[in-house]
Amino acid sequence: MTSDTSLRPVSPLRARMIEDMTMRGFKEDTRRDYVRHVRSFAAFIGRSPDAATAEELRLFQLHQTQSGMQPPSINSAVSALRFFFTVTLDRPDLARRLTVVPYPRRIPAVLSVEEVTLLLRAATAPKYKAAFATAYGAGLRASEVVALKVGDIASERMLLRVERGKGGKDRYAMLSPQLLELLRVWWREGRRRSQLLPGGWLFPGRNPIEPLSARQLCRAVHAAAQAAGIKKRVSPHTLRHSFATHLLEQDVDIRVIQTLLEAETYCPPTPDRGADLLPVPSSLRRDRVHCQAIRLPWC
Predict the structure, then answer these.
(1) Domain boundaries, the chain
(2) Would you say domain 113-293 falls under CATH 1.10.443.10?
(3) Predicted pLDDT of residue 263
């Protein structure tokens, strides 16, 4: 029932909070983070958090700020405590006392086409080259890349099936001919090495039964960027931003890019253009665009 991996006994209050999160479909990482934040607050006040006062919440946030905690971490704690007080304790009056800390949004790093080429060439193995290419060529998140299975490649339709992406939604992503060829190269190599199991993960970990983790993919991207001499801070999400930006530079409609990213109101900003907040027409989302007609620059 619980997702907290701690060996400590689980109190009835924590168990109830975990049940509340489980019922709402929170992912394990989110559940673990929320429990950690509430536990930190309980340690700060020195007693059970269900006995907290509004003044203690204010002092806790002041303590976080004075101790040098960054705004994103503070806001993560706010989300956890708001859930705890509003849902688990039914005390929305306390939740309203929590303050979200504003902070400047930085323009995400974007690789040039040449840098993407260098990154792919610097991949240490065919599996990683194919995984990097999938993050870039289909605009997928790291969690979506590592969750792909061999059967998710719909080559006859030139689509990739993404199961339980952000928000637990299933969707289809574009599959370009260049990406399909790279995936086929990896499939042949993976089969030769007995790393790809029938119906198994497209990018398995060291144990073929388990998928590559998002953290392993991130480390591989960092290593390839360093080997390629790329000075920017590069992560798998950088490839997703680069995917969107390169399409935008080819004058692809922003609404089409939003649909491909499965982001209803977001398009990544560039140095000379702020973020565009444009609604995606339902007809465009329904028709799924002609994804395979869009081509990305490749080496």
Answers:
(1) 12-95, 113-293
(2) yes
(3) 55
- 10-residue mean pLDDT series, the chain (299 residues): 53 94 91 95 95 94 94 95 96 92 82 92 92 92 92 88 78 87 91 86 91 93 94 92 86 77 51 39 43 48
How deeply is 43 buried, as exposed, middle or buried, from its count of CB atoms within 10 A (0-12, 13-18, 19+)? exposed
Residue 146's nearest CA partner among 199, 203, 195, 197 is: 203
User: Which token pair is 63?
Assistant: 């303590």
With H, G, I as helix, E, B as strand and everything else as coil, classify residue 214. Answer: helix
Q: What is the CATH number of domain 12-95?
A: 1.10.150
Identity of residue 184: R
Residue 267's pLDDT is what? 44
User: Residue 81 corresponds to which amino acid?
Assistant: L
Long-range contacts from 195-200, C-beta under 8 angstroms, 24+ separation: 195/127, 196/150, 198/150, 199/149, 199/150, 199/151, 200/149, 200/150
Phi and psi of 201, rounded to 5°? -70, 140
The confidence score (pLDDT) of residue 295 equals 52
> Which tokens hold the place of 214?
């998002």
Task: Tell me the C-alpha distance between 89 and 50, whole Å.
Answer: 7
Give the span between the Cα atoms of 133 and 220, in whole angstroms.
13
Position 220 scores a pLDDT of 94
Q: What pLDDT shows up at residue 246?
A: 87
Distance CA 71, CA 102 (A): 7
